[in-house]
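Lab manual, section 2.4: Encoding a predicted structure.

Procedure: take the sequence of the chain (155 residues), apply the prediction step described in section 2.3, and record the output as structure tokens. A sample record is shown.
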Amino acid sequence: MAVKEIMLDNVTKDATQEEKLAAKFVNCVMKDGKKNAARKVVKNALLIAEEKIGEPALDILKKAIDNIRPAVEVKSRRIGGSTYQVPTDIKPSRQTALAFRWLINFSRNRSEKGYANKLASEVLDAYNQRGGAMKKKEDTHKMAEANKAFAHFRW
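Recorded output:
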């Protein structure tokens, strides 16, 4: 299979939604301002995922992020001396940020060799609706469902 170039660098305003998502993901992976290193890691991870699945890399990333993007979360509200976990809807930008954060954190905690392999494995797990990030989403939704009785405390 011929390896095609994944557009992660100069994302312009006419870039596709997936390319913007990938560029934002690179910025989230970046540590200590080392963008080139982050770009290489994400590119290698997406190429590994592309080889294993056979779909375009950016489509794999988009579907993985969509799978682990939470719809609701719980926020603590202090009312009359008691603290309640109130379920609230999440804005799309925060959904994406949480998905990125979970994906990155759970990939860093994997036991494989090399960060690109860890990230590729977590992206593939998210694509297939399993893994740590997916479990975190399910736990968040369960917590919101369990505290549905306090939804009337929402502002």
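Check your result against the sample. The CA atoms of residues 29 and 104 lie 7 Å apart.
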